[in-house]
Specification:
Enolase-like_N, nine-stranded mixed beta sheet, single chain, TIM Barrel, metal ion binding, globular
Length: about 375
């Protein structure tokens, strides 16, 4: 068998893109270009510096040795893990898979073992950070053909929620359920705003409304409370957007969470999320990748979704409340891969990640850049509140 001609990584660039994203572009000496999305929302500049450091290793390397590079990038430093490093690796990993697909003339899902489904179910956000106008927003998603939505349970929550706070959460979800009917699903995001005590109080009240799942009832630092919450909750529990590798998912899975939500731009990219999904399958849990980000992150998520047997549903952020002035489709040559049909996305067959990035639009947008930061919330007494 003839020896494969060695292609080398020649150039790595990063672009701060409004509204709050970071893209990376990896180019080979033969002109193949892969795109990735390495970002921590609100800390994009820090991740950009991490990508620059990791690029020192990748320049001159064979882009098709993806697993070898993943091992070195994640383990080659004495200090490992964390959101910044894992997100930098994630974006580079996406770009390498994009290059591999182009080199082999196949979509990434084919390289992951082939598709196990023809379309992927998606959901849309309603309600914003301080959920309001839920009925009208839910009705708009019904009109758009969506079969599922996600909404925040509340704004800020006190440690032991009052009867009024609990009633507000239940009323908000009930309003959405009334509009959606029984044929569509609601996922409820606590965004880590609840204490374990608050979650145990609220979740049984939500059960009659049959949420698809309740997401991140407590912050990751309180993950040791998940067994209590799972036991107390008749509603499936989801978590994982702030976990960055398969080792961090082990305890939640042992606690009995039903849905894992690694983010393709945070949890080590395609390579690691694929492994997280496989580990979750051994616990009978399903995959619902977190993705309130840009087009590259969504494209990478979909490639995993199409090749993952225990996939449930995909988050996507078209029209989400964080996107002011720019949206996913602004940076695509052709928006067709993200055209919704009956609340689903069809399987992409183009090589690599299945999308074509409008490089001119990216470079133009990067001239403006962004300095997006998440809000800092406070309770009425002036103390810090989880956002």
């Amino acid at each position: 068998m003839a020896e494969r001609h060695l292609v080398k990584i020649d150039r790595i660039e990063t672009f701060l893109i409004p509204p709050r994203w970071l893209f990376c572009r990896v180019e080979t000496d033969e002109g193949l270009i892969g795109w990735g999305e390495p970002v921590v929302e609100g800390r994009a500049e820090v991740v950009r510096s991490a990508v620059d450091v990791l690029a020192e290793y990748l320049i001159g390397e064979d882009p098709l040795r993806i697993e070898q590079h993943w091992q070195v990038l994640t383990k080659g430093g004495f200090y490992r893990g964390g959101p910044v490093l894992s997100s930098a690796v994630a974006g580079l990993d996406q770009a390498l898979w994009d290059i591999a697909g182009q080199a082999y003339g196949a979509p990434v899902h084919a390289l992951l073992g082939g598709p196990v489904r023809d379309r992927v179910r998606i959901y849309s956000w309603i309600g914003g950070d301080e959920p309001g106008e839920v009925a009208d927003a839910a009705a708009a998603q019904v009109a758009a053909g969506m079969t599922a939505i996600k909404m925040n349970a509340s704004g800020r929550l006190t440690a032991i929620p009052t009867s009024a706070e609990v009633a507000d959460v239940v009323r908000r979800v009930a309003t959405a359920r009334e509009v959606l009917g029984e044929d569509r699903d609601i996922a409820v995001d606590f965004h880590g705003r609840a204490s374990a005590a608050a979650a145990r109080r609220i979740l049984p009240e939500l059960a009659p409304l049959r949420p698809l799942f309740v997401e991140e009832p407590v912050v990751p630092e309180q993950s040791h409370r998940l067994p209590d919450i799972v036991t107390a909750s008749p509603v499936p529990i989801a978590t994982g957007e702030r976990l960055f590798g398969r080792h961090e998912f082990l305890a939640p899975l042992q606690a009995g969470v039903a849905v894992v939500q690694p983010d393709l731009s945070h949890a080590g990219g395609i390579s690691e999320v694929r492994r997280i999904a496989t580990m979750a399958e051994t616990f009978g849990a399903v995959l619902a990748p977190h993705c309130p980000l840009g087009p590259i992150s969504l494209a990478a998520s979909l490639q995993v979704a199409f090749a993952t047997p225990n996939f449930l549903i995909q988050e996507q952020s078209i029209g989400i409340h964080y996107h002011e002035g720019s949206d996913l489709l602004d940076y695509l040559v052709d928006p067709e891969p993200f055209r919704f049909v009956d609340g689903h996305l069809r399987r992409p067959e183009a090589p690599g990640l299945g999308i074509s990035i409008d490089e001119a639009a990216v470079r133009a947008a990067a001239r403006a850049g962004h300095t997006w930061r998440n809000p800092v919330w406070r309770h009425d007494d002036g103390s810090f509140a989880e956002w």
